[in-house]
Specification:
alpha+beta; Arc Repressor Mutant, subunit A; SH3 type barrels; 4 domains; 5-stranded antiparallel beta sheet; 11 helices; elongated
């Protein structure tokens, strides 16, 4: 990943007076031209880069800038290492492991010991309980498809249980709410959609390449698409006190009013199949006060559950 490489190059430049461009290219297994582009990006980010010509020359950071060589403190380095280890645990890519080793090799034994101690204070494990199953394989396939700009064909079942085959242009893998999603342009819907990896039953990468469309991924567009004003409803909910921990985790203190026995919550949420399942997950400890049509939806779903299990007795 480019960001990984930029960080590693910056760390090396902070540790050494100058490094030949060809040495950096060999270290990161890229072309000299790519290294020069990366170095130019670092320079444009506000870290002055100087190129030294002749024998013993190379790329370095301007001497005046070296008043503070500790741009990356042990805490900064520990945060980077913890983040990379977390990503590597879920997204199979040997480059993450290689980058970790490269970062560690820039440290003295004393610094490495300090960073290791701080890294152990924060462990990011992105794998679900019981293992990732087929998700890791799909992540690897989709990540390569994104890098190669190749269309992907997938068999998908949406939240309503409708199955379809989609041809999509993959743009980004998104970890949201402990689940992996693919953000992609869907040919059938003629728009960007978020596909949950757990609902993909078949996946294949095609040989067809696509020209990337304009999309501001740093603005998290899926947040706006999930929260559509026309689907938003005002909920009035009453929870039994034994659900206090879960209610506080989901809604926060500001949304809760309490009496001796119950917790009252007012919240605005998008109405969709996810909402019904979310509300049902609280079981008999939740009563929906308003709106009335949500009460009817939950009643119908609960009646269906009763019929299902009553038929077995």
């Amino acid at each position: 990943m480019k960001l990984d490489r930029l960080i590693a190059i910056l760390v090396l430049l902070l540790r050494r007076d100058r490094i030949p461009a060809r040495e950096l290219a060999e270290l990161f297994e890229v072309s000299v031209r790519t290294v020069l582009r990366d170095v130019d990006a670092i320079d444009r980010a506000g870290i002055p880069i100087v190129t030294y010509q002749g024998a013993g020359g190379g790329i370095g950071i301007a001497e005046g800038f070296r008043l503070d060589r500790s741009l990356l403190t042990p805490d900064d380095m520990a945060a980077l290492v913890a983040s990379l280890k977390g990503v590597a645990s879920s997204v199979p890519d040997t480059r993450h492991t290689v980058l970790l080793e490269k970062l560690r090799n820039t440290l003295s034994p004393e610094q490495l010991q300090t960073v290791q101690a701080k890294t152990n204070q924060l462990v990011i494990d992105l794998e679900p309980w019981g293992g990732a199953g087929p998700v890791k394989e799909r992540l690897a396939m989709l990540r390569q498809a994104i890098a190669d700009r190749r269309q992907v064909r997938l068999a998908y079942t949406d939240a309503a249980g409708q199955s379809s085959v989609r041809l999509v242009e993959p743009y980004s893998l998104v970890l949201k709410g402990q689940r992996w999603y693919l953000y992609a342009w869907c040919e059938a819907r003629q728009g960007f959609r978020l596909f949950r990896l757990g609902r993909i039953t078949e996946l294949s990468v095609t040989e067809t390449r696509f020209v990337p469309r304009e999309v501001a991924l740093d603005e998290l567009p899926w947040e706006h698409e999930w929260w559509k004003p026309e689907n938003a409803i005002q909920l009035e909910l009453v929870f039994e006190r034994e659900l206090s921990a879960a209610v506080r985790e989901w809604f926060g203190e500001d949304a809760i009013r309490e009496d001796d026995q119950r917790l009252m919550v007012k919240a605005v949420m998008p109405e969709n199949p996810w909402l019904y399942g979310f509300l049902l997950s609280f079981g008999p400890g939740l009563e929906v006060v308003n709106p009335p049509h949500i009460r009817r939806v939950l009643l119908d779903l609960a009646a269906g559950i009763v019929r299902r299990y009553s038929s077995e007795t």
